[in-house]
Specification:
Number of helices: 0
Shape: elongated
Order of helices and strands: EEEEEEEEE
Number of domains: 1
CATH superfamily: ApaG domain
Pfam family, one: DUF525
Number of strands: 9
InterPro entries: ApaG-like, ApaG_domain, ApaG_sf
CATH class: Mainly Beta
CATH topology: Immunoglobulin-like
Protein name: ApaG protein
Radius of gyration: 16 Å
Distance between the termini: 21 Å
Structural class: mainly beta
CATH architecture: Sandwich
Helix content: under 10%
Largest sheet: 5 strands, antiparallel
């Protein structure tokens, strides 16, 4: 598990390889990731949007920008956590993802970025 804390917000990521399949005559590798967002700060915060950079060792990078996560904009009070799972497809057995969440601190009303640590996407069969 990969973890990182930014301004009192702890992000933990765990990944899993789901398999390979053909799509449009091209092999794709499916990965899921499970993220836990933990508010270790003294203030309530809300996640408003996300930015992802998906790196594929055999293809060009993909950028994902959007509101919320999985259709939600969770509010976390001090000590609370939010969990969610999602996934991605890449065209090689190796890749990586990184990014950040845009959040707002309800006490200061200031927005800030919370770094999502870089995590690897690797099919187990390709590691030997």
């Amino acid at each position: 598990m990969i973890q990182q804390i930014t301004k009192g917000i702890k992000i933990s990521v765990k990944t899993s390889f789901q398999g390979a399949f053909l799509k449009n005559y091209k092999t794709h590798f499916a990965f899921t990731y499970h993220i836990t967002i933990e508010n270790q700060s003294n203030d309530s915060v809300q996640l408003n949007s996300r930015f992802w950079l998906i790196k594929d060792s055999l293809s060009k990078n993909e950028i994902i920008n959007g509101e919320g996560i999985i259709g939600k904009k969770p509010v976390l009070k001090p000590g609370e956590t939010h969990n969610y799972s999602s996934g991605c497809l890449i065209t090689s057995p190796f890749g990586a993802m990184s990014g950040y969440y845009n959040m707002i601190n309800f006490t200061s009303t200031k927005t800030f970025k919370v770094k999502i640590p870089t995590f690897k996407l690797s099919a187990p069969f390709a590691l030997n």
